[in-house]
Amino acid sequence: MIRWLFKLPLRFRSLFRRSRVEQELTDEFGFHLAKQIETYVSRGMLPERARRTALRELGGLEQHKEECRDMRRVNFIEDLWEDLCFAGRLLRRSPSFTSVAVLALALGIGANTAIFSVVNAVLLQRMPYENPDRLVMVWEHSPRTSKTNAVNPINFLEWQARNHSFERIAALVERSASLTGEGEPEQVSRLIVSDGFFQILGVKPVLGRWFTRQEDTPGNDNVTIIGEGLWRSKYAEDPNILGRQLLINNHNTTIVGVMPADFRFPFTKAELWQPMAIDRATAMKTGRYLLTVARLREGVTVASAQADMDVLMPQLQRERPDFDSKWGITVVSMREQVIGDVRTPLLVMLGAVGLVLLIACANVANLMLMRAAGRSREMAVRAALGAGVSRIARQLLAESALTAVLGGAIGLLIGIWSKNALIAALPDTITYANLKTIRIDTTVFLFTTAISLATGVLFGLAPAFKAAHTNVQDALKNAEGRVAVGSSFGRNALVVVEVALTMMLLVCAGLLIRSFVRLTSVNPGFDAPRVLSMQLSELGRVGTDQEFLDFNTRMLERVRSVPGVEAAGTSHFLPLGRIIPGTGFWRADQSRPNPGEEPVTEVLCVMPGYFAAMNIPLQSGRVFTNRDRKGAPLAVVINRTLAREFFQKEEPIGKRLYIQWGHPNDTYEIVGIVGDVRQKSMDKDPKPGVFLSTLQEPTSPVYLVVRSRGNPTKLAQTIQAEIHALDRNMPISDVKTMEDYMSESVAAPRFNTILLGSFAVLALVLAAVGIFGVVSYSVAQRTREMGIRRALGADTESVMRLVLVQGMRLTLAGVAIGLVGACGLTRLMETLLFGITPTDPATLVGTAALLMFVAFVASYLPARRAANVDPMVALRCE
Amino acid sequence: MTKPTDLVQGTLDLLILKTIALEPMHGWGIAQRIRQVSRDVLQVNQGALYPALHRLEQSGWIKARWGESDSNRRAKFYTLTLGGRRYLERERANWQRLSGAIGLVLETM
C-alpha cells in the first residue's frame, strides 16, 4: 500500500509530463552513446568508426526506447490516447471509408434497436396485468362469422351467472366521448366497463379507486376514472382531482380515480373509463357488440374453460332459439388474442433487421479486411520501428473501436428516431402496451453495438496477426504494400453472403410493394376524393324516432344549403371500418331457410343523398327519396353481388326480400341495384349487401357524409356550425375525409411496405458498397497484371470484361443462394400479401435484375479504372 | 553477448541494485561496473539494461536524478531507495540460499 502511494507520483509524472520524460529518455541514451564512443576513441579508434561501432552495438535504439516506455506501465493509457488520436486522424483522412463503415454500423444498430424495442414491448414482454396467464377473452361465434365475434349483453349476463371457469368476467365497449365544460370541447375515447373489469386486470390506480359494485347499477353510474395522460394534460396533475365533476357528452360525472399512463386494454385507446350498468330489462336483446375479459379460476386451463362454455351454450340456444341458434362460444387466451394479429408482421420485420445487421457486419468486415490489406506496408514499418504485435493490435483495435463507437452513437440517434417513426406509424390499438411509453431498449442497443464492435474488432485485428507473421523486410521491399491479408476467398464469401441476404430482403420488399400497389389500385366502390364525414354519436339516444328523423332531415337540408356542398346523406356505418353490420335474409318467393341458416348480407341504413354523396353508381332501378318513409311500402336497394348471387339471370327489381334487421315479418321490395362497395377493408372482396331507408328504419349511430365541390376540409367548420345551430350540444366526432379512411385502411400494409422497403434499399446500398470494395481492391492488387495484359495487346474492353466478370460472378452466386433463401422466407409472410403468391415470378425476376444491375454499376467503376491503367506505369511501379 | 533471458530471472535486477548500492551511478557506469567486477563474464546488453532500470524506478526500488558526470556531461544517476535496499537484502539472501542449495546438490552428486 505504501509502495503504491510512493509510485503514484511517478506514474503521474510519466503520464502528464510526457515530453519531459521523453526528452530524458533521449538524453539518457545519448549519454550512453557518448560514453561508449569516448571509450572506443580512448582505445585509439577513429571517432567516426567509434561512433559507428557504438551505434551498432547499441542495436535498435528506437526499440530499446519503446521497451523502456513499456516498462513505465502508464504506457497503456498513454498509448490508448495516442492510438485514439491517431485513429481519429486516420479516419478523418479517409472520409469515404469512415462514412461507409460508420453508416453501415449505425443503420444496422439503429434499425435493430428500434425494431427490437417495439417487438419486445409488443410481443415478448409479459402483459402488464396481474397474473396475465390467467386472462382470457370470451367471444361468440357462428358458422357465418369469425371465431371471435362480439357478444350480446343478455348472453354475457347468462355467462356471468352460469359459468364454472371464471373468477370473474367483465364486459366492455369503446365509445367516443366529448369532454365539454372546461375549455375547448375535446374528443377522446372512453371505455365503458362492467363490474370487475379493473379487478380482473389487477392494475392499481395511481390515485383514487376502482369502480364499486354499486356503481354498476343504473342510476349510480355517474362516475369516471381518467387516465394519467388526461390528468396531466387537462388537470395539470391536480392532486385534488378526486371528486371533481367532468362533463362527458353533456352528462355530469364525478372523477373517482386516475389510472397509470401505460394502462390500456388491447384493441382500445381509451383515456376514460365509465361503469356499464347493464339492465336485464332494457338491455339489447339482439345485436352483439360487447368485448369481454375474464380471469380463469386457479388451475383452470383455456381448454377446460372452453369445454365448460361448450356445455353452456346449447342451454342458451334452447332458451332463445330465435337469436342464439347456431351460435357458440370461443375462449381465447388474452396473449394469443393480442399477439395473433401482429406477430407475423413484427417477426418479419425482426427477421429483416436481423438480415440488415448481418449485411452491415459483413460489410464492415469486408471494409476492414480491404483496408488492412492496403496497410501491410504501414504495419511492417511500425514493426521495424519497434512496435510489438500487441502494440500494433492495440492501434488497430483503437481504430475499430472508434468506428464502432461512432457507429453506435449515430445508431442510437437513428434508433430513437426510427422508433418514434415506427410507433407513429403503428396502429394505435394493436396491443396492451401503450406504444407512447415504449423506450429504447438499452439491452438491445448494447447488444447490437457489441456485435458490431466485435465484428469490427475481429476483422480489424486480422492485419495485426498477419503482421506478426510477416517478414518485415519482404513487406518493406514491396513498394505497393500489397501483401494480401486474409484470403480473397474470405472476402469473396463475405460479398456472396451480403448479396444473398440482400436478395432475400429485396424479394420480401418487392412482394410487399407489389401487394400494396394492387391493394391501393382496388376500386373501393365509392368515390373517396372530396367527401367529408363526421359522426354524430349521441344522435338517436334521446327522443322519439320521429324527433330523430326530423333532426336528420333538417340537418341534411341545412348542410345541403351550405355553399360548396354538392350532396349530403347519412349512413349508420362507414365503409372500410373493418366492422359492418350484418343480417340474415331470404327471398320472399322462396321457402324460409332453417333458423340460423339464413344467407347473410351486409346492411346499412342510409338517408336519401347517401349514394350521391358517396358516388356509388346506380345500376338499375332507383335510390331512396324522402318518400321512402314510415307508412310507405318498405324498400330496399341491393348491391350487384347480392343481385348476381341470389338472382343470377332473373330481374331483381320488383322482387321481395325478408330482412331480419328491421321488420322481420314484412317483406321489402327491391327498388334499385347499386355498385359493390368494399365495406370491410380494401383486401376483402365485396359481399352481398342491402341498403335500407333510415326514414323507415331509424338507426344510430349516424355518420354524415358530404360531397363538396372543392377541398372538403374547408367545409368542416361551417357544417359543424350548421349542426350546432340545430342542437348546440350535439357532440360531433371523427371529422375526417373519406380519403383519410382509405389511407387508414391501408395503414398497416403501407407501414410494412415502407419499413421493409427501406431495409431493402439499405441492404442494396450496403451490398453495392461491398461489391465495389472487393472489386476495386482486387483491381488495385492486379494493377501490374493489368499492365502486362495491356502491354501484351489486350484492349480496354477485354480488361474491363475481366474485372466485370469477377464482380458479376460473385453477384450471380449471391443471387442464386438468395433466391433459394427467399423462397423459404417469403412463405412466412404469405398472410401479409394481397393478390400475389409468395413466389411471384415477376417479383423474383425483377429483383434479381435490379440486384444484377446495381452490382454491374458497382463493378463497372473499378473496371473502368483497371482498363485505364497505363501499362508503362503499372510495370514500372514494382 | 549475454541476453537478459539467459540470466536467471530477476538476476539482472539484483546485479543492478548491488552495483548502485555503494554510490549513485548512471546506466553506462552500471554496465561497465558489472562487466569489470565479473571479469568480463557478464556483459549487460543495453537493450536489457535500460528497460530494467526504468522498471526498477517505476517499482520504487531505485530513484533517478540528473547530475554531472566525470566528463562534465549531464547524466541520469540512479540511487537505491530505502525500500530498494531492503529488497536487495531480501533478494541477496534468497540468491545465496538458492546458489548454496544448488552448490550442495552439485557437490554431492
CATH superfamily of chain B: Winged helix-like DNA-binding domain superfamily/Winged helix DNA-binding domain
For the record, give the distance between the C-alpha atoms at the N and C termini of chain A, rounded to a whole number. Answer: 60 Å
Shape of chain B: globular
How many helix segments of chain A? Answer: 27
Number of helices of chain B: 4
Strand element count of chain B: 3
Number of individual domains of chain B: 1
Radius of gyration of chain B: 15 Å
CATH architecture of chain B: Orthogonal Bundle
Largest interface: A-B, 28 and 24 residues
Structural class of chain B: alpha+beta
Spans of chain A of 5+ residues with little confidence (pLDDT < 50)? 479-486
Order of helices and strands of chain B: HEHHEEH
Compute the CA-based radius of gyration of chain A.
38 Å
Summarize the structure.
In chain A, 53% of the residues lie in helices and 15% in strands.
Your description of this structure?
The complex is a heterodimer of chains A (878) and B (109). Chain A is an alpha+beta fold and 878 residues long. Chain A folds into five domains: 2-73, no CATH class; 74-128 and 340-483, no CATH class; 143-326, no CATH class; 487-523 and 745-878, no CATH class; 538-730, no CATH class. Chain A contains 27 helices and 21 strands. Chain A has a six-stranded mixed beta barrel with strand order 2-3-8-5-7-6. In chain A, strands 13-14-19-16-18-17 form a six-stranded mixed β-barrel. In chain A, a hairpin with a 7-residue loop joins strand 17 and strand 18. In chain A, helix 12 packs parallel to helix 23, helix 13 packs across helix 15 (442-469) and helix 23 runs antiparallel to helix 25 (796-826). The two termini of chain A are 60 Å apart. Mean pLDDT of chain A is 82; it is low at 479-486. Helix content of chain B is 59%, strand content 15%. Chain B starts with 10 loop residues before the first helix and ends with a helix. Chain B has a single domain, classed as Winged helix-like DNA-binding domain superfamily/Winged helix DNA-binding domain (Arc Repressor Mutant, subunit A, Orthogonal Bundle). A three-stranded antiparallel β-sheet of chain B has the order 1-3-2. With 109 residues, chain B is an alpha+beta fold. Residues 1-6 of chain B have low confidence and may be disordered. Chain B has four helices and three strands. The chains are: A alpha+beta (878), B alpha+beta (109). The A-B interface holds A 3, 6-7, 10-11, 14, 24, 27-29, 31-32, 34-36, 38, 57-60, 63-64, 67-68, 70-73 and B 26-28, 45-47, 50-55, 57-60, 66, 69, 71, 73-76, 83.
